[in-house]
Specification:
cytoplasm; 9 helices; alpha-tubulin binding; 6-stranded antiparallel β-sheet
């Protein structure tokens, strides 16, 4: 299972850093690797990296640590895990991980659309009015459909009750068009943003490299 994460910090530099957190189901171990090249070869404890091992939850003691290691049920988009005093917010999972969790939804409650919708139906009667008002602004033409809504912009009642991963599960299940990966314009935009953040300017060599690998033009 693979997630992109960020450290919860007030430091403006730390906020921009991104990490890959891998969780291994066979033994409940995890690893953390920085996506920032400048930090990869530096002290792992200082800069947030973690070699593959079992990670103990906060407030565990010698006597209860065996029952307080992070488990696969702790790994879902929107959750925060704490490693060596640092909080890592899980921002996104790759498509393989999302698909695996949905195919084994009996193991992952936030990927189980039936369970989520059952809870939603029990919870929603008292919230219909506020939710209707909250979503109408995303459907001004009253088509009955809305574009994907960023979780942070969802009504606060939903965010309090359901984690981001659960809402992604529902959105994927009921989507009019199935997700097939990043479209070209989104991919280009993300690459440009990352290159800009890295202050990269050697575009001539990048173009040459693509031409070499695209021999058939």
């Amino acid at each position: 299972m693979k997630f992109i994460a960020r450290i919860l910090s007030d430091d403006p530099v730390e906020k921009l850093r991104r990490f890959i957190i891998c969780f291994f189901l066979e033994d409940d171990t995890m690893s953390i690797k920085s996506l920032d090249e400048d930090f990869r070869n530096k002290n792992s404890m200082e800069h947030g990296n973690l070699t593959r091992m079992k990670a103990v939850k906060p407030h565990s003691t010698y006597w209860n640590s065996g029952r307080n290691f992070y488990h696969f049920t702790d790994m879902f988009v929107g959750n925060v895990i704490y490693i060596r005093g640092k909080g890592y917010e899980l921002l996104e999972a790759d498509e393989y991980t999302i698909d695996y969790m949905e195919r084994h939804s009996e193991m992952f409650p936030h990927s189980n659309v039936r369970k989520i919708m059952t809870e939603f139906k029990e919870w929603i009667p008292d919230k219909v009015g506020s939710l209707k008002f909250g979503f109408e602004k995303y459907d001004p033409e009253k088509t009955g459909y809305i574009k994907e809504v960023i979780y942070e912009e969802m009504p606060s009642d939903i965010k309090t009750e359901f984690p981001e991963h659960a809402m992604k599960t529902v959105g994927r299940y009921y989507a009019e068009e199935k997700y097939i990966g990043l479209c070209l314009t989104d991919l280009v935009s993300r690459i440009q943003s990352e290159l800009y953040r890295k202050k990269f300017h050697d575009f001539d060599n990048v173009k040459l490299a693509f031409q070499i690998y695209d021999s058939e033009k």
